[in-house]
Amino acid sequence: MIRPHSRLPKPETPPGVMERSRSLPESFETPATVIGKFIRDKRNSFSAAITKRISSLGRDDDGGGDDEEEIVKEFNLVGLKVIKTLKEEKKELKGRISFFSRSNCRDSGAVRSFFRERNLNFVEINIDVYPGREKELKERTGGSAAVPQIFFNEKLIGGLVALNSLRNSGVLEAKMEEILGRKCPEDAPAPPVYGFDEEEEVMAADEMAEIVRVVRQRVPIQDRIMKMKFVKNCFSGAELVEALIHHLDCGRRKAVEIGKQLARRHFIHHVFG
Predict the structure, then answer these.
(1) How far apart are CA 259 and CA 255, in angstroms?
(2) How, if at all, do strands 155-158 and 149-152 pair?
């Protein structure tokens, strides 16, 4: 280090600085220092409380507690509250939940979501996909084909309104345990089996499938912009009708009706539902 020449003037302390430095406390803490200290204190107290609680639980498990098992539901720490939720045991249902539905039915979707949220297994019978089951629905409901219609085993519960009524009154769980607690009888609605419908329905589906093969070869399927939205792998209804007219050598009205049949049998669907 090169020191300044001895004859150079020495720097003097500005007036008032010494007085302010003497007035400051010996341990001056900034806001950041205070916050850091607060976090460290909370962390240490939290760790100590957790360690103490785990140690006490371990001593209780070793047999030092009472005969009855002590279940800790909640305990308070410094600045923190921990709540332990006891998981209820799921009761096994021996019966079967089934309901009749239609495609694009809002109430049917609500019933489906209701059972899924409660992790309940159910069987959905879509009478648009399985039109032969509509006759069964009318027989079970006394002539009505309105959907959804919910069944617990062979017992008809009703639609969405009846389901909400049971839930709001608090008797839904008891009703399920009463009916679904036993094995499902043979006269309950059977689960649909794809590919084993009536013979005439299979023949009609085969005819529709043959038309679909021709449509896939003659109708241009490509990405399009519809209603200011980009849609992939689609075709226009007008092009479909023109292809059916030329292939089947039929009128426009019949071609439109065939297109509707393709939609009802879920070979095609509208890009916007």
Answers:
(1) 6
(2) antiparallel
Domains, in order of start, for the chain: 38-64+71-83 (no CATH), 97-180 (3.40.30.10), 199-264 (no CATH)
pLDDT of residue 67: 47
Instruction: For residue 202, give Cα distances in angstroms to 24, 207, 271.
Output: 95, 9, 27
User: What SS3 class is residue 206?
Assistant: helix
**pLDDT per position as a tens digit, 216-228:** 888 888 888 888 8
Using an 8 Å Cβ cutoff, are 217 and 133 in contact? no
Q: Give the DSSP letter string of 20-59.
A: HHHHS-SS---HHHHHHHHHHHHHHHHHHHHHHHHHHHHH
Q: Give CA–CA dist 46/43, Å, rounded.
A: 5
Q: 3-state DSSP call for residue 218? A: helix
Report angle CA 17, 18, 24 to the nearest 5 degrees.
90
Separation between Cα atoms, residue 174 and residue 172, nearest integer Å? 5
CB 208 within 8 A of CB 129: no
> Whole-model pTM?
0.44
Using a 10 angstrom Cβ sphere, with 0-12 exposed, 13-18 middle and 19 or more buried, the burial of residue 233 is: exposed
CA distance 152 to 99: 9
Weakly modelled stretches of the chain, pLDDT under 50 = 65, 67-68, 197-200
Q: How far apart are CA 218 and CA 240, in angstroms?
A: 9
Where do the H-state alpha helices sit in 60-90?
none
